[in-house]
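Minutes, structural biology subgroup

Action item carried over from last meeting: produce the structure token record for Neither inactivation nor afterpotential protein G isoform X5 (Glossina fuscipes). EB confirmed the sequence was re-checked against the source entry. Recorded below for completeness.
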Amino acid sequence: MRWRQFLPRGKGLGGSSQLNYMLQYEGFEGDFERWASEYYLKDWQWSTIKPYLQAAQAKPYERLDIPATYSKITYAFSQLHSEFVHKSWKYRAAQYNIKNGLRFNVLERFLQPAYLHNNLRIMTNTLAKQIVFVRDKNGKQNKVKFLKVSAKSENKPQDQTFLIEIRHELIISAGAYQTPQLLIISGLGDRANLEKFNVTSNAQLPNLPMVGQQLHDHLIIPLFVSIEQVGPTVNQRALLNPLTWLKYIFMGGGHLGNFGVLGFIDNTEGPISDHYSLTLFGVGAVDERAFMVISNFKRNDFRGLFPRYHNTSQEGFVINSACLQPLSRGTVKIDDLNIRKKPIIDPNYLNKAEDINCTIKAIRAAVEVITSNSFSKLGVQIHWPRLKGCVNYGPFENDFHSNQPSDDYLECIIRHVGLSSHHPAGTCAMGLNSTNSVVDSQFRVHDIKNLRIIDASVLPTPVSGNPNSIIVGMAVRGKHAFSKVLKLYENRSQES
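Output recorded by EB:
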């Protein structure tokens, strides 16, 4: 089964942190230890990377923490630990990079404080079109000579193209979709594929077959739960309440001061193919017009998933189930050398049977949470979606009483209403050499003297949570690496 989803990216100052959910994640030790052992990235052990992740985290006064007292739902969430002591689940209350009710992303935290530096020039309304390579003076290694840039001007109808000379290093941070697109257009990728597009270069560029390969993402399955309580969730009645607005205006808090995510439950024990996460999303009434467009749902599927779509004052929540370490891998390719053309993105979700099994386990864990003693006091009811394509598998009347529908039914809804978490990564992954990766452990593109990539595309496997904080930590580490290179260049210049 094939369907299309919207895959937006942040194309402005701050990147995708200007449109994401702003959730802060401290990182999972096992992810980095696995990179060190299985991918031989020895300098990515947890003890090495942890200080950079801590440096990237917002300070307590720069973020918003959702307390247990926020609502009846968060209080019920806080009681789960004592009820499920036999489980190895890890509970995380939501933390946001939100300050005084406003988005506090990498633009505000890192770029704005550097505006006055005389060695920084920011160009907006520009687009990197191509990287121009040459051989170094010894003729032994490829290096970046120029970056070809296109700029739009209000006074001139056509783009103005010019070259920026690269004196030290070029760092690419175009994201998991457009970083590989830029590399391929510039002549870096699988040589056999490049020949189809007649991509030429003055340099003898290395063969990098992994450019655009190994795309991974978290696929989430939303399950709507209605409750009988009044007041604890986001809906039209709550948003129009004058007290809601006063709380936001004077305190920067309340429903208008966050994105509705209240907490997480992570299972990171056992085989990685069984690692899953549950996200508690405190939204009772889901706006059909807005959410259906964002998700690209068909109307019937949307209404099957949210049967009370017409009730703007509905109380409840959505619990999202996701496999944390999906094994399926997709691709990013091109069919045009024009950088303004969209790349061909195939996430290839659910290609591996293990991902289906993992997601089913996550959904059944979500049922345990919803039907727990902690949540039963709220008068919960799971609304198993009635989808036309799944009618042969359920939900049957008994499923609404037992809340144990068949695996066949769960697989069917996973394939019909699964959504991207918008956590794409891996398309220029880190590794040991050019046959199995694109960059080394220091973000340097293999066999290119002065080119680094620092964005989500270098993640060799998914991170077990929201990736933005991890990528910021990687950028902090990259800054240290680049500072050493810059100092080396300066010393050589002084000596000469």
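Discussion: The first strand starts at residue 64 and ends at 65.
Next step: EB to file the record with the rest of the batch.
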